[in-house]
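USER:
I would value a second opinion on how I read folds in token form. Give me a protein, with the fold worked out from its sequence. Write it directly below this note and I will take it from there.

ASSISTANT:
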Amino acid sequence: MNSNIQTSSPADQSRVSQRESAASHAEPALTPPVDVVEDAGGISLYADLPGVSRENLNLHVEGGTLSIEAQADLATPQGLQTSHTEVGLGRFRRVFTLSKELDTQNVSAELAQGVLRLRIPKAAHAQPRRIDIQVA
């Protein structure tokens, strides 16, 4: 399932790292755990977002910054009442600074069973390439 991703031109950042954004967001939110896997073609991010639907997931890439914001649908079934809640906050937020080696114009996203998978390919100039050797 693809999600909406908004992009703009990449900025000059040097690596993928988490960035604080508390000043821009006053509402409290959970920081979802994220696994980042790099291969020769780019990176894949796997974020745990239990109870989040596609409609309540917002992804933004702007100026070399990736933002993940989501709201979980943790409704109590009709006729039942909650007696104990361990995670009462259903809002998630995570912000990353992306390397200039990543192609932020071609980000893809999938959401399945509470796990968001983002694939960010490396830019053409950062892709490994084979150099042909001429014999003289």
In short: The first strand starts at residue 5 and ends at 6. Residues 5-74+88-124 form a domain with the Immunoglobulin-like fold (CATH 2.60.40.790). The chain has one domain: 5-74+88-124. Residues 1-24 have pLDDT under 50 and may be disordered.
